[in-house]
Structure formats: structure tokens, C-alpha cells
Design brief:
- By secondary structure, the chain is an alpha+beta fold.
- It is 47% helix and 16% strand.
- It is built from seven helices and six strands; from the N terminus they run H-H-H-H-E-E-E-H-H-H-E-E-E.
- It has helices spanning 2-25, 44-75, 80-84, 86-93, 136-144, 152-169, 178-197, and strands at residues 111-122, 128-130, 134-135, 204-215, 232-235, 239-244.
- Strands 1, 2, 3, 4, 5 and 6 form a six-stranded antiparallel beta sheet that branches.
- A hairpin with a 5-residue loop joins strand 1 (111-122) and strand 2 (128-130).
- Helix 2 (44-75) packs across helix 4 (86-93).
- The chain is extended, with a radius of gyration of 38 Å.
């Protein structure tokens, strides 16, 4: 037993001596502090993408800030700042970002309006080809009827464009302000796009609108099958548009 214990202790001591010699004369590689870690350089393409991303984020934040400020000046009570920059505020807000209180105090229409459009195209021989009237309001109504989730565009885009046109023009079709010109172009472009979508590829260079206003019949009125007489039948002038169709 003594011999075995002596052998074991001698083995432990010799192993300790070997570890001591190894630590003194053969240091581990991870303890070398002279080696400097070089930073990994990113490729040029990655840096360009990151710079573009940072620029896009900054532009989005700046655009959002400008939008909030201009809309705030539009809805805020009249003040020296909103009066001084009224043209810039109106140019940004109308017609896409118009703000009103009709969500809380709705003012439903008491009339039914038929907004009809027809187009004209001059052929190479000098003759003018005029299309029949297309009821744009009926197209919108057909997209809304029996639709559980009707499109906001189908419900309000054309109707609001017409009411804004009347507010700025009155009974005349001559634009007397920059906003009136803008809303006239807005209504014209909406009508041209709607007609082009239902024109089966026909080309046209002029468009004309006709708006027929009909009263809403009272409930229980015995009018038979006779349609109500229109309260207004307004024919707008021909407007030149960019060439549509092929």
C-alpha cells in the first residue's frame, strides 16, 4: 500500500512539474497581447446601400414633419403664420389632404346627381368623332350597390370633385383663382381617367361633362313611374386633355 501511494503521489508531482514547465516556457497562444485585431472593412456596395437607406429615412421623416405642420396650419384658427403661407398650405392640402368635420357632423346630399361625360377626337381627314354620353355616377353606384365594403374612391372621389368645383366656380365655368384652376384640372383628369377605363382603347383629345341634378323624392310620395324633373341640367364646355387611349 505504501508503494502504491508513493507511486501515485510521485505521478501527481511529476505532472505538476510538467505543467509548471509548460506554463513557464511555452505560454498559451491566447495570452499573446502583441497581436492587434484588424477591423473588418465593409464592402463598398454595403456602405452605399446603408447610406441610401439613411437618406431615405431622413427624407421620410422630413416629409412627415412638413406634412404635419402644413395640415396643422390648415386646420388651426387663422393666425399670422397661416395667412402669410396660405398659398403654400393650400397648394399642399388641396385636393388630396383636405380636412373637414363631416365625419362628426355629416351633411348628406339632398339631391341625386348624374355626372355624364363624352369625348371627342379629330381624325386625320378633319372630321370630329364624338362618343355617346357615359354616366360616370352610375358606374360608381354600381360598384357601391350590394358591396359590403365599398371603395371610398367609388363613393366620394367624383362627387367631392364636383362639389369642390361648384364651390370655387359657382354658376360660371371660368376659373378666377389658382385653386379654381386646380380643381377644374382635378375634375377633368378624374373624368378623363374614368372614360379611358371604359372606352375600349378609343383615342380622345377633348372631354365634356354634363351634370343633371335630380331631387330626392320624399318617402311615400305617389309619383308613379314618372321620373322627377331635374332641378338643374348643366353643360360644361369642352376641355382639352392629354391624348388617352391608343
Amino acid at each position: 500500500m505504501r508503494k502504491t501511494g508513493w507511486a501515485v503521489s510521485s505521478g501527481i508531482e511529476s505532472a505538476g512539474v510538467k505543467e509548471l514547465h509548460q506554463s513557464d516556457f511555452d505560454p498559451a497562444p491566447q495570452e499573446h497581447h502583441d497581436e492587434r485585431v484588424r477591423p473588418v472593412e465593409r464592402p463598398m456596395g454595403v456602405r452605399a446601400v446603408q447610406a441610401g437607406l439613411h437618406t431615405a429615412v431622413a427624407l421620410c421623416l422630413l416629409t412627415t414633419l412638413v406634412h404635419v405642420v402644413l395640415v396643422f396650419l390648415h386646420v388651426a384658427p387663422s393666425n399670422p403664420v397661416s395667412k402669410r403661407y396660405s398659398s403654400q398650405v393650400n397648394g399642399w392640402v388641396y385636393p388630396l389632404f383636405e380636412q373637414n368635420w363631416r365625419l362628426f357632423a355629416p351633411d348628406p346630399d339632398s339631391f341625386n346627381r348624374k355626372i355624364l361625360a363624352r369625348t371627342a377626337h379629330a381624325d386625320s381627314d378633319g372630321s370630329v368623332r364624338v362618343t355617346p354620353w357615359l354616366d360616370l355616377a352610375a358606374v360608381d353606384n354600381s360598384a357601391v350597390d350590394h358591396n359590403v365594403f365599398p371603395s371610398h374612391t367609388s363613393q366620394n372621389l367624383l362627387r367631392r370633385a364636383w362639389t369642390s368645383y361648384v364651390e370655387t366656380h359657382g354658376g360660371s365655368d371660368t376659373a378666377r383663382s389658382e385653386r379654381a384652376v386646380m380643381l377644374q384640372n382635378y375634375l377633368r383628369n378624374i373624368a378623363a381617367d374614368r372614360v379611358a377605363a371604359h372606352n375600349d382603347g378609343g383615342t380622345f383629345d377633348f372631354i365634356q361633362l354634363r351634370v343633371v341634378t335630380l331631387p330626392v323624392a320624399a318617402p311615400g310620395t305617389a309619383a308613379g313611374n314618372r321620373p322627377p324633373a331635374p332641378t338643374e341640367d348643366r353643360l360644361l364646355p369642352w376641355w382639352k386633355v392629354t391624348s388617352h387611349g391608343k
